[in-house]
Specification:
The complex is a heterodimer of chains A (about 425) and B (about 425). Chain A folds into two domains: about 25-220, Cytochrome Bc1 Complex, Chain A, domain 1 (2-Layer Sandwich); about 245-425, Cytochrome Bc1 Complex, Chain A, domain 1 (2-Layer Sandwich). Helices cover about 40% and strands about 20% of the residues of chain A. Chain A is built from 15 helices and eleven strands. The relative contact order of chain A is 0.16. Helix content of chain B is about 40%, strand content about 20%. Chain B is built from 15 helices and eleven strands. Chain B has helices at about 45-55, 65-70, 95-105, 115-130, 140-145, 160-165, 170-180, 195-205, 255-265, 275-280, 315-330, 335-350, 355-370, 375-380, 385-395, and strands at about 5-10, 15-20, 25-30, 75-80, 85-90, 185-190, 230-235, 240-245, 285-290, 300-305, 400-410. In chain B, the strands form two sheets. In chain B, strands 1-2-6-3-5-4 form a six-stranded mixed beta sheet, sandwiched between helices. The longest helix of chain B is centred in the first third of the chain and has 20 residues, at about 115-130. The chains are: A alpha+beta (about 425), B alpha+beta (about 425).
């Protein structure tokens, strides 16, 4: 049956001109604050970003445990008082670290704005890291770790990063159960005093922020004093392991997890936008080549995705899927086949139009509401860029040609360089 | 306050609109009032498999996803025991494409044998990924048949592998004609649109679809549970886990809100009683949670936790029971009541910060009877008293109507 073209409503151009730079102020202690105002609800989100993550650690788990221990006791409050207050004021609190940063976020109703700031100041800047709570937390984290280690998806992902970034680099670090007993509260105090300081901090305030917000921020955050701290030197650039194919057996698994990818360029590289488009074509949306082939035609998997991520020291490409165990080898073959097709055959008009419109509207979705907008801004800010990145990306999406796509696919998907990591049952 | 406008087409399709000019997007949600509860016990998983096929070709559009993506849209869907919900976001300038696509697949599907067998494979991989290949992944599959003996909630939405395999094109057609009618559907549109435009587009695209007789079955009522039930399984997981499920009221019952606050008193945030006492003070569990299934027919209140190594089930259950008994006998302090209400309010408002969250919330409330309930829900929670919480705990959390699952680790040392 044919599509009745006459029925189809016209597709209108998608514009992203509404994206604007956030307002920036500097508090008296030189802490930068970005405001992303918007939304209809009387609600605000604050992100405290410290540019210190795994790469700043002296010992594994140091940054994430420091973040997680903030609510476990402070100078004036016990853990149960802190947790009660956070819940009492309906504050959604989250503290976590990743490879390059520690991010502490709180979302709360505007009528609790000053209470929330007062509480956040106490929690973030005067933690005590008490021993008993520390032990309980580490036991809980160890249990999560042990459970996650049973999943083929976790196993494959961990070995993938170890292979791509190297065993000795913090980007490639694979945790062991012993790491959970090696870390001590003294490590947390050390990390906190080094990095939870004004010169390492940037604030992102989003939502329908109440009046007087700047004065309040000045009062609670601007008053935090500087003191000298020696930042750990950034580690060298990561280098991948020599071995490009890895199989990790997992007895009893009914699916295999497949991870394929490599290091690649960072967002600051002029080719990054084009590579993002190629990545989307390959596996970055539901209509992608990999999804159509491995799911919608062959039924090997519930889903397959490819990612392009930019970190401080490197970027990476990653294709990830879980497939029925009997399809493991066939799936790997099809993934490589799709990459090679992208490198050889020009993309047809209809598919190119589809991916272009999808990506332009996905840009719009990245700005759906003030919290999403703040997150999108933080992403480019971490790469040392600003909102103009999105305008450049939009231009590239509109202008990219089939030839450029072939060129980019050839330049950045060197099939001989890709790592293939599989976790699953033995054949 | 979320402003809502509504109309009902002659064919029974309800259309609800919320205008929000702060976003360049529009979000559209269609809820069909059909879920796994409507399935034949010998053909479970059909409602969910059917949801997958809704993307595989309709009367005049062979490629739903491609056409939507061409207009910049993105979509997904979910099926549960009661409903099937299809939702999408799209730049508001292209909203009409959503009407074209959704109306076309309401008119009729055009599914081939090939599509059917392909989506069976995809659903079986989904089953493996979500339930079989995850530690503790099959626990929910075990609890349902333990708690329900008669009601269709006894089988999970994902269904049974052997049932999924035997679904025919005939079954798919019959299911479509029985349930996918305009008069069995709710459509909610929110975003940078005008209500008048939405009503006009709804009439243009959906108005000609005929009202159909929707298959109505009287679902068997689950008889009251008279005695406690228990199931023990052994699995290769790192730690023992405990699951307890009690029969409670349906989502529309006024007591549901009281029970929701009760589960928050038990387990919301790090200050919930279960976390505070069982995880932090007594160190019996490494994690524990309490929640309601929230079904349209009487559902379950489930408490589930993972035991620390060296803790016996007996000890863990005794201490858990003490906390439950205390809620029944001792009024919850005012400050704690205020805390769970404040938390609810904040989360309720956070759900609507983006347009998709808003449209999905509105859909859920319309399923309960009226989308504008979204505006009165906070007040209903505010009106719950400590006495009501104790009473609800006494009424529902009875030892005799409890279903307990011991999920025993073959790796951990057993006591």
């Amino acid at each position: 049956m044919k599509t009745q073209k006459s029925d189809r409503p016209p597709v209108n151009p998608i514009n992203i001109e509404f994206i604007s730079q956030p307002e920036k102020i500097i508090l008296s202690n030189k802490v930068p604050v970005y405001f992303i105002k918007g939304g209809n609800e009387e609600i605000t989100k604050i992100d405290f970003v410290f540019r210190a993550g795994f790469t700043a650690e002296e010992i594994p788990l140091q940054s994430s445990t420091t973040a997680r221990m903030l609510t476990e006791g402070s100078e004036h409050m016990t853990a149960s008082e802190i947790n009660h207050e956070l819940d009492y004021y309906g504050i959604t609190f989250n503290a976590a670290s990743d490879r390059d940063s520690t991010i502490i976020s709180a979302i709360f109703l505007n009528r609790h704005f000053t209470k929330a700031l007062e509480l956040l100041k106490e929690i973030i800047f005067s933690p005590r890291f008490p021993e008993d709570e520390f032990k309980t937390l580490m036991n809980r984290r160890l249990q999560w770790f042990l459970i996650n280690r049973e999943k083929v998806s976790t196993i494959a992902t961990e070995y993938f990063f170890e292979s791509v970034f190297g065993k000795s680099h913090p980007y490639g670090l694979r945790l062991n159960a012993e790491d959970f007993s090696r870390i001590k509260p003294a490590h947390l105090r050390n990390f906190h005093s080094r990095y939870y300081i004004p010169q390492e901090m940037t604030l992102f305030v989003s939502g329908k922020t109440p009046t007087g917000v700047i004065e309040h921020l000045e009062n609670y955050v601007g008053s935090i004093v500087h003191y000298p701290a020696d930042r750990k030197k950034s580690p060298p650039l990561p280098y991948g392991e020599k071995k490009r194919n890895l199989f990790i057996p997992k007895e009893g698994a009914v699916q295999s997890a497949i991870r394929i990818g490599s290091q690649t360029i960072k967002r600051s590289n002029p080719d990054f936008s084009s590579l993002l488009i190629v990545n989307t074509l390959l596996g970055g949306y539901f209509g992608s080549r990999l999804m159509k082939n491995l799911r919608e035609e062959k039924g090997y998997t519930y889903g397959i995705s490819s990612y392009l991520v930019s970190l401080d020291l490197a970027g990476y490409l990653l294709i990830a899927t879980e497939v029925g165990k009997k399809y493991t080898q066939k799936a790997v073959k099809e993934i490589f086949k799709e990459i090679k097709i992208l490198q050889k055959e020009p993309v047809k008009d209809k598919e190119l139009e589809m991916v272009k419109n999808y990506m332009l509207s996905d840009l719009v979705r990245m700005f759906d509401g003030p919290f999403a907008t703040a997150e999108s801004f933080r992403l480019v800010w971490e790469s040392g860029m600003d909102m103009s990145y999105f305008q450049t990306l939009a231009q590239k999406i509109k202008s990219i040609t089939p030839d450029e796509i072939i060129h980019i696919a050839r330049s950045y998907y060197d099939t001989g360089e890709l790592y293939t990591v599989i976790a699953g049952p033995e054949k | 306050m979320i402003e809502i406008k509504r109309c009902c087409l002659n064919n029974g399709l309800r259309v609800i609109v919320h205008e929000d000019s702060s976003t360049p997007l529009a979000a559209v949600s269609l809820v069909y009032m059909v879920g796994s509860r409507n399935e034949d016990p010998e053909l479970t998983g059909l409602a969910h498999l059917f949801e997958h096929l809704m993307f595989r070709g309709s009367e005049s559009v062979p490629d739903f996803d491609d056409q939507l993506q061409l207009a910049g849209g993105e979509n997904n869907a979910f099926t549960n025991s009661d409903i099937t919900n299809y939702y999408l976001t799209i730049p508001a300038v292209n909203i009409e494409t959503a009407f074209w696509l959704e109306s076309d697949r309401m008119k009729g599907l055009n599914i081939t044998e090939e599509s059917l067998s392909n989506q069976k494979m995809v659903v079986l991989e989904e089953y493996r990924q979500a339930y079989l290949n995850q530690p503790y992944g099959d626990a929910t599959l075990l609890i349902r048949p333990l708690a329900y003996k008669i009601h269709p909630y006894r089988w999970p939405t994902i269904g049974k592998e052997e049932h999924i395999k035997k679904v025919t094109l005939g079954d798919i057609k019959e299911f479509f004609h029985s349930y996918y009618a305009p008069n069995n559907c709710i459509m909610v549109v929110a975003g940078n649109v005008s209500a008048d435009d939405v009503f006009r587009l709804a009439e243009k695209w959906f108005g000609k679809i005929k009202m159909r007789k929707v298959h109505t079955e009287t679902l068997p009522e689950e008889p009251p549970q008279k005695s406690a039930r228990k199931l023990t399984v052994k699995r290769n997981v790192p730690a023992n886990a405990l699951y307890k499920a009690w029969h409670v009221c349906c989502r529309r019952d006024p007591s549901f809100i009281t029970l929701d606050l009760l589960t928050d008193i038990l387990a919301a945030g790090e200050s919930g009683r279960l976390q505070r006492i069982l995880v932090r003070e007594k160190k019996l569990f490494s994690s524990i949670n309490a929640y309601l299934t929230g079904d349209l027919d009487p559902g379950l209140l489930i408490i589930q936790g993972r035991l620390n190594n060296g803790v016996s089930y007996e000890k863990a259950e005794n201490e858990l029971n003490k906390i439950i008994e205390e809620i029944k006998s001792t009024p919850v302090p005012d400050e704690e009541m205020e805390k769970v209400k404040n938390r609810f309010e904040a989360e309720h408002i956070m759900d609507r910060v983006n347009i998709l969250g808003k449209v999905l919330s509105l859909s859920q409330y319309e399923v309960l009877g009226d989308a504008s309930l979204i505006n009165s829900e906070i007040e209903l929670y505010r009106n719950v008293t400590a006495g009501m919480v104790s009473e609800a705990a006494g009424n529902y959390l009875k030892k005799t109507s409890c279903n307990t699952l011991y999920y025993i680790s073959t790796a951990a040392k057993q006591l």
